[in-house]
From TrEMBL:
Name the record gives this protein: Helix-turn-helix domain-containing protein
InterPro entries registered for this protein in UniProt: AraC-bd, AraC_XylS_family_regulators, Homeodomain-like_sf, HTH-like, HTH_AraC, HTH_AraC-typ_CS, Tscrpt_reg_AraC-type_HTH
Pfam family, one: HTH_18
Keyword Transcription found: yes
Disordered: annotated span: 272-296
Keywords on record: Activator, DNA-binding, Transcription, Transcription regulation
Organism: Streptomyces ochraceiscleroticus
Domain of life: Bacteria
Occurrences of domain HTH araC/xylS-type (ranges): 172-270
């Protein structure tokens, strides 16, 4: 005995340019019939919220699935899975496609491992909320259907990445430590040594946790902070450079210009937010931002 609800969509070519489009959504519960063997031309995230079941390798070997868990079904890869025939499971699924799926795969949000499609999750609450938004947007005649569901697919991928059982709820400790030390004038090798790691081990850890190299991870934090200081203070560019870890202001300016697309001074002019007195004389603290309260 089982219950099922599903909707399928056919987004237009212009909606595909959003990067990701939702092709379908479903909510199912009970002793569901097995799926496959079959092969699809798009991605499907199958989230198991409660219960247990199995998935089969291409060679037919079955492996247990215990909630909470995620089954990644990837394009062109045969898959075969099902709920326990006695107890069943509580499942939701989202079909999606689009050019941004390649980028999400490169960043590690989508795991294209045909031999191991199962990803254990810590919980499914955030994923369930994102899928709920897709289900609500799926009402007949909704003029915002494609855009609303596209946005929710992006949200779902983030929620699933955060919910992976191998990720600490507060983030990867190595990434936390790198973020804390990001403004120190240290090389990647020196950062690795501080954590008792080789540069190769640090690269692997950061790539797994953030989807990029340690250099790019640190650079993103440094440039983000530099933008805040340029926009909200009147500090000279050289002082901004020193505060984000660069002793050579000329090198900082070249790096900022190459990555941001505009020079630091030009960026400050474009923002036009520095106001003499008030907050502009203070260094903004990202961990303790000022509170703006409304009146009446």
């Amino acid at each position: 005995m089982y219950r099922t609800w599903m909707r399928y969509f056919t987004p237009s070519p212009v909606h595909h340019r959003l990067g990701l489009v939702c092709l379908g959504v479903g909510l199912q519960h009970g002793t569901l019939p097995a799926v496959g063997p079959r092969t699809l031309d798009h991605h499907v995230a199958v989230i198991i919220h409660a219960g247990s079941g199995w998935y089969a390798d291409p060679d037919g070997t079955r492996h247990p699935v215990t909630a909470p868990a995620l089954l990644w079904l990837t394009p062109g890869v045969p898959h075969h899975y099902g709920a326990d025939p006695e107890t069943g499971w509580d499942e939701s699924f989202v079909d999606f496609t689009g050019p941004a799926a390649t980028t999400y795969t490169e960043l590690g949000y989508i795991e294209p491992r045909p031999d191991r499609p199962l990803v254990p999750l810590a919980d499914t609450a955030a994923a369930r909320a994102a899928i709920g938004r897709i289900a609500r947007a799926a009402r007949r005649g909704n003029p915002l259907l494609e855009v609303e569901t596209s946005a929710a697919v992006h949200e779902l991928l983030v929620a699933l990445r955060r919910a992976r059982a191998d990720t600490d709820a507060d983030g990867d400790p190595v990434l936390q430590a790198l973020a804390r030390d990001a403004f120190l004038p240290l090389s990647v090798a020196e950062h690795a040594a501080r954590h008792g790691m080789s540069p190769a081990e640090l690269r692997t850890a950061v790539r797994r946790g953030a989807g990029c190299s340690p250099k790019d991870y640190l650079l993103g934090i440094r440039l983000g902070r530099a933008k805040e200081l340029l926009a909200a203070t009147e500090l000279p560019v050289a002082a901004v450079a020193r505060r984000v870890g660069y002793d050579d202001p000329a090198y900082f300016s070249r790096l900022f210009t190459r990555r941001v697309g505009t020079a630091p001074v030009r960026f400050r002019t474009q923002q036009g937010r520095a106001v003499p007195g008030g907050w502009s004389t203070r260094i903004p603290d990202p961990d303790d931002p000022p509170v703006v309260s409304g009146t009446g």
